[in-house]
Structure formats: structure tokens, C-alpha cells
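Hi R.,

As promised on Friday, here is the backbone we talked about, encoded as C-alpha cells. Could you run it through your design pipeline when you get a chance and send me back a sequence?
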């Protein structure tokens, strides 16, 4: 039984390229992925340092892609400093995730850029970028190569905020304890399928909910839960992966979730990024929804709500900032 991903046209900005059998040591997750609380103050702190220049466009709601390899490297460095910091301010973390995502998208699309960008980064950032660029290229390979074959309409979706990192992590870890499925793989699937539940809508294949279950598959693994509820859906994904031999062969189990080896490699790369550094979960939670169209990847921010498909050209003309 397979699950069809809702993000059939969305998977433009995500991860991949290793096999699913890597067993690198895993650092503890709970201590590093914490909810972010803004400091309480009686008055604005005029002494606070200004945000990094590279994050200002995303903070202003007008994100932009890098125009050169050096700019892409600077965006990655600035974003990862925020993601890895002890307690980043929420708006800054959101801007960091979006900025890093745009750097990945552009580097992945420009084949000559990657070596030049990697040369400007430190070891940790190089590893992070290499994995994410590889993933984006894997997921992009799952969709038409010709522009004429891409969507000319945006979907009838609703985009909502994701659940907090701690809430999701609690469900991932419960599924890990009960079914022996590494939490990072569950998080990676949740990210790839609906950007951690940001997307509310039904796929063309009828898949539903944050982990994108086809109803007949849900009947087997849902245990009477709510297909739209994140906790129930995450546990159902754990059951499905365990039933398909995750403990013996992670790749084969992931393939049963979605019958594509590019999907398997992409999900694995996301999982390995979080395995190496659990703080990357909160960075990924700040990635935005992009929908692949004939005009390019169109940003669908929180608050996007369409009951019917909308022509992409008309949407972009009304919202030019949505096509960075």
C-alpha cells in the first residue's frame, strides 16, 4: 500500500542523495529543539544589534534569491548562525529558514554555483548545503523537465502555521519508541509531504492530512485516529514503516511510503541533516511552501486560501513578491 504525496508539484525546495542505510551516531534531540520564547521587556532595547543584512528581505516579507555565489554563501552563513544559536527570536528564526531555503533553491538550479559556494563556507555549512542541494535536485527530478508540462494554476489549498517544534517532536519521539522508526525520518516525511502540516488540502490521488495518507491505507494503519490530526498521522506513519520492515531496510520501507527512489534519497537526506544536528528541525520548520509552476516556484505564504485553483500568472501579477 503506498501513499501519494500532496506535494506532487511542490517538492521544489527539499533534500536528498544518500542511501537510507546510514547509521551515524545520533545526538539527543530533546535538549536542542526547544520552543522559542521572545524576551519580555518593558521597552524596546535600542542597544540590540540589527539583524543580519542577508535576512532583512525575508524579515520585510519581500524575500529574494541570491544573485551570485558569494551572496548565496553569505545567506547560508547568516541563516545557519541563527538556526544554531541557543534561543533565536521567532521572527529572526523564520527569516533565517526562508533565507536558507532560497539559497538552496538557487544553488540547486545553477549547476556551476555549488563548488564556488562551498568554497566560501565552513565545514558544517558546507555539509548542510551539499545535503540540501542534493535533496532539492532529487525531488525536482520527480517532476516534468519541460516548462510547458508544469502547472499554470495554483492549487486550491489553505496554508496555515505549523505546530511548534516541541509539539511535533513529542509525537515523533513517541512513534520512535513505539514502532522503532527514527524520529528524524518521520520529521523528514512530514516536511516533504506538507511542510509540517502547513498545507491543508487533498492531493489529486486523494491523499489527506499532514502525513498524506490515502484513505484505504489509513484504514489499515490509522488505528481509528483522525487522518487530519498530526499526532495520529505521525503514529500511523510509524506503524506503516514498521510493517514494511524499516528496522531491516529503511530504504525499502520508505519506498513503500512513496514508490520513488528519488523520494527515498530525499527523505533520507533530510533525516540525516537532523540526525547530525537536531536544531535543524526548527530551521526546516521555518521553510516556506513553494509551488512549482511554469513561471517558477511560487511562494504560498501563511494565509493563502483558495477554494478553487487560481491562474498562476494572475496571482503573481497581484503578488509579485511571491515569485522571488
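Update: got your reply. Pasting your designed sequence below so it's all in one thread:
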Amino acid at each position: 500500500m503506498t501513499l501519494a504525496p500532496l506535494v506532487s508539484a511542490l517538492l521544489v525546495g527539499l533534500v536528498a542523495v544518500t542511501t537510507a542505510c546510514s547509521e551515524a551516531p545520533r545526538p539527543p534531540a530533546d535538549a536542542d529543539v526547544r520552543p522559542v520564547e521572545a524576551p519580555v521587556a518593558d521597552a524596546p532595547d535600542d542597544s540590540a544589534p540589527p539583524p543580519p543584512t542577508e535576512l532583512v528581505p525575508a524579515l520585510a516579507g519581500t524575500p529574494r534569491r541570491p544573485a551570485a555565489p558569494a551572496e548565496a554563501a553569505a545567506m547560508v552563513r547568516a541563516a545557519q548562525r541563527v538556526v544554531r544559536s541557543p534561543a533565536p527570536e521567532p521572527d529572526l528564526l523564520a527569516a533565517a529558514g526562508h533565507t536558507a531555503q532560497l539559497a538552496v533553491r538557487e544553488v540547486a538550479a545553477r549547476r556551476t554555483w555549488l563548488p564556488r559556494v562551498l568554497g566560501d563556507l565552513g565545514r558544517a555549512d558546507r555539509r548542510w548545503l551539499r545535503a540540501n542541494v542534493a535533496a532539492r535536485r532529487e525531488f525536482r527530478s520527480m517532476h516534468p523537465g519541460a516548462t510547458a508540462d508544469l502547472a499554470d494554476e495554483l492549487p486550491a489549498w489553505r496554508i496555515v502555521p505549523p505546530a511548534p517544534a516541541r509539539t511535533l517532536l513529542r509525537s515523533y519521539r513517541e512513534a520512535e519508541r513505539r514502532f522503532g522508526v527514527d524520529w528524524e525520518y518521520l520529521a523528514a516525511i512530514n516536511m516533504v509531504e506538507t511542510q509540517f502540516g502547513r498545507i491543508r488540502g487533498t492531493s489529486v490521488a486523494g491523499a489527506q492530512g499532514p502525513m498524506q495518507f490515502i484513505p484505504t491505507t489509513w484504514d489499515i494503519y490509522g488505528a481509528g485516529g483522525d487522518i487530519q490530526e498530526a499526532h495520529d498521522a505521525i503514529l500511523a506513519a510509524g506503524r506503516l514503516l514498521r510493517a514494511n520492515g524499516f528496522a531491516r531496510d529503511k530504504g525499502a520501507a520508505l519506498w513503500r511510503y512513496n514508490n520513488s527512489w528519488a523520494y527515498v534519497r530525499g527523505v533520507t537526506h533530510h533525516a540525516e541533516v537532523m540526525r547530525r544536528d537536531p536544531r535543524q528541525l526548527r530551521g526546516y520548520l521555518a521553510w516556506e511552501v513553494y509551488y512549482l509552476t511554469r513561471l517558477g516556484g511560487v511562494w504560498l505564504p501563511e494565509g493563502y486560501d483558495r477554494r478553487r485553483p487560481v491562474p498562476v500568472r494572475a496571482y503573481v501579477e497581484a503578488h509579485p513578491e511571491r515569485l522571488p
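One thing I noticed while checking it: Strands lie at 153-154, 158-159, 199-200, 289-293, 296-300, 310-311.

Thanks again,
M.
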